[in-house]
Amino acid sequence: MKKKEIMGRVAAVMLTVSFFVSGCAAGDVDTGLEETGAVLENAELSPGTGMKFTALAGMNGGYSLNDNLAMKVAMQNANILIDFRSVLGDDLTEKRILSLASGNYPDMFFKTMFEGTDLEKYGKQGIFIPLEDLIRKYAPNLTARLDEMDGWDYLKASDGNIYSFPEIDRPSPAGAVLWINKRWMDNLGLEEPADFEELYQVLKAFRDQDANGNKDPGDEIPLSMAGSVYPLLAYADYGYDYISRTAVIDGELVYLPTDGRFKEFIRYVARLYQEGLLDRDTFVQQRKQLEAVGRSGDILGAFDCQGAFEVVGRGRNDYIALTPFQEGTYPIKKGITLGAAVITNKCRHPEALVAWLDQFYDEAGGILAWMGVEGETYRMNEDGSWGWITDKEYGKDVSAVRACSTIQGAQYHPSIQPKLWDALSEAEDPDEVYLTQEHLKIVGMGAVPLPIMKYSEAEGGEILALSTDMNAYIDRYVVQVVTGDLDLEESWEEYLKVLQTMGVDRLIEIYQKAYEETAK
Fold it and tell me: Are strands 172-173 and 330-333 parallel, antiparallel or unpaired?
């Protein structure tokens, strides 16, 4: 859809809310803007008056959304100005917590990845405003998409309110994917592993048989992960839910950390670690450290991340996403992600922001958010495919163009994934096309692990209070057993007793009640 058509659609919605009046309060946020409600005199905006808003946002790489081409166009479409205070991804959680705790928060949080518990907390405090009625009235694109997907319940909090705008894309893996070096397997004449024992044997061969072929049999790292080994649980013969740590097994909801299956999982991981198949830095390294290892040479046999090129760099299609060991159990997401944007009670005209955000939920808006501007950041090819433009001022490689000129980035963003995205030319961006193919392979064998489980406000508070310390204890126990500080058999019963003293029975009771009510 052409720019004029986008502007026409957004403008029509804006007129229904008497848009060009006064702006939203900036609160105490130091934005550098004049007092809101003033007439804008900004060359970036089309002639006339417009509204100003403030927002806290995650950066695209090192780029602020204030300087982002797609965002500038999105604001021009509605003749508004949003002053983004953009922060690096590593600082995002801290900055948003500090701003909310101080009361010094903006009109909107954009690309700040609020999870369900945060949305519940700040929504029920009145800091995040309810959006369902506003969406139905002022966001026809999003309303139509949620109706089509039967997706409203995915966005609702336990009180029935919706507190955030979603990112809507195709179903995807629920967590990090395990990538394994296909070239190394070919070098050694190995087949892709089809169960945990075969995976162990492949990793052992990587360790012992000079898999990279450089005549040094000791420089290979068979498996390395960034802080957690739970992505391996995705390959178990039950659908593991990362958030609740439960799985539906034979029609019954099971809390895995107290189940014998979890004990056997720990035993397996400990075997990998003790035999030098799992990197000893796994539990202490962060994602950036794993990426540094991946880019240091041909030394990684397997690792976890969303896309292999994130760790080893582009142009390295040596790695395949490990195929699930069986159908129907690999945990996937429906394609609706909460927390991409929220509007706060600082905003005096939230209907204006709702109408503005709605432009990202049709095909044209999805293209703008994900791909940027035709002729500037991407071009259409004669065969109907498209490719990135890397010979203009927006960047000399795909990563730079996407970071500085599209809204898509490291954090979820309010938009739909456009259908045109699947027509990306393989010749232009083989890494992205390959990633899509590998994800589709996994998703096709997976399933959403749990139905939509709703909790009362009191139950939500209990879950947060119980699971925070409990999850930390479980994670610490796993590390201690895997690294050899504790013996699994000698410590297991004591571990279960500690969980009981921490209230695990009550946590299970809450999950079980919600599951049974949903099943009805």
Answer: antiparallel
